[in-house]
Hints:
Blueprint (H helix, E strand, L loop, with lengths): L2 E7 L9 E6 L9 E8 L4 H19 L5 H22 L7 E2 L1 E7 L2 E7 L3 E5 L3 E3 L6 H7 L5 H5 L20 E6 L5 E5 L1 H4 L4 H8 L5 H14 L6 E7 L2 H6 L1
Antiparallel strand pairs: 1-11, 2-3, 3-4, 3-5, 5-6, 6-9, 7-8, 7-10, 10-11
Helix pairs in contact: 1-2
Amino acid sequence: MLRSYALTDIGRRRQLNQDYIYLTENPIGNLPNLFIVADGMGGHKAGDYASDLAVRTVTREVETSAEKSPVKILNHAITTANQVLRKRASEDFALNGMGTTLVAATCIDRLLQVANVGDSRLYVIGDEIRQITQDHSLVEEMVRMGGLGREEARNHPDKNIITRAVGARDDVEVDFFDLELETGDMVLLCSDGLTNMVEDETICRILKNGKSLKDRVEELVQTANMNGGRDNISVIVIEPLADEVEHD
């Protein structure tokens, strides 16, 4: 039995929440469940519109897809969302330059399938916390090339520059990951409004504190706000094998 809880918050500095979250624990098209976090970017209202439109397009495409492979289903859905955003931006000058990150996941028994564009993240928390997705950002590329340390990267002035986004270019490249989950594992999808404000070790500690799932998610958001809340904060936490934990 899968269990999940989600929360999105405007944070303490922004006038508008440009994040958009979606979750269903029930089948959607040929997927058994679906979880999405999108973090929009663009001028006033454009980022808000981008994340909303991208998620609505992805869920519609997933619902109607005849494909069986989760990778093919999600790749087609995200590619279509990219085309839809590009078309709308070309029709409305106010939407020019809009785009959105998008991280999506589906749990098929113990198999977790993940799709990612941008710097919203997916983690798996077991004995420790593991970041599964790789940020598509300028700073992350500098870290990977050895030009920047991980601690320096946390507060780098160019941290908000991302190298891939849905809607940013005519073609979108989607990263895919899959892994086998262990009993007791939790899955976290989040926007950078959480990870820029709360260190991974603190996220792990909060998620393993034994409180209700709702309380843990709310504590993550509260902690991000207490640490400055400089951006919108979106969190989805999934316990894919919740019934097995309860029976142990």
